[in-house]
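// run 5 | inverse folding | seed 20
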């Protein structure tokens, strides 16, 4: 059975390492917040990531088949809602609901 001092020291070391690993990203990001590069990326990255996700999700879509209409309709609803309301949550929710309804009822395999 380990010594009590050893167990306490192990817990303290684990706590210090955990605290340090959680605090390190905040300490490292503080000087970067004023960087022009980080400000540019924070403005441009969300749109770039969304384009990559759309291309990835639609790359293997068989366009001549009827089952391709559900994702394309959902994409149209998502884009339309976002252009109309400028609310990301509403756009994503509307597109997801559209896809689920169309894929499970109208265009079900």
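// decoded
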């Amino acid at each position: 059975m380990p010594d009590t001092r050893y167990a306490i020291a192990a817990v303290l070391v684990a706590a210090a390492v955990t605290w340090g690993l959680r605090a390190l990203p905040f300490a490292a990001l503080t000087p970067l917040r004023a960087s022009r590069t980080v400000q540019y990326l924070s403005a441009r990255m969300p749109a770039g990531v969304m384009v990559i996700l759309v291309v990835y999700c639609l790359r293997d879509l068989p366009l001549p088949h009827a089952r391709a209409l559900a994702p394309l309709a959902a994409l149209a609803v998502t884009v339309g809602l976002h252009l109309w309301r400028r609310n990301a949550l509403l756009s994503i929710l509307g597109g997801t609901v559209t896809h689920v309804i169309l894929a499970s009822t109208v265009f079900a395999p």
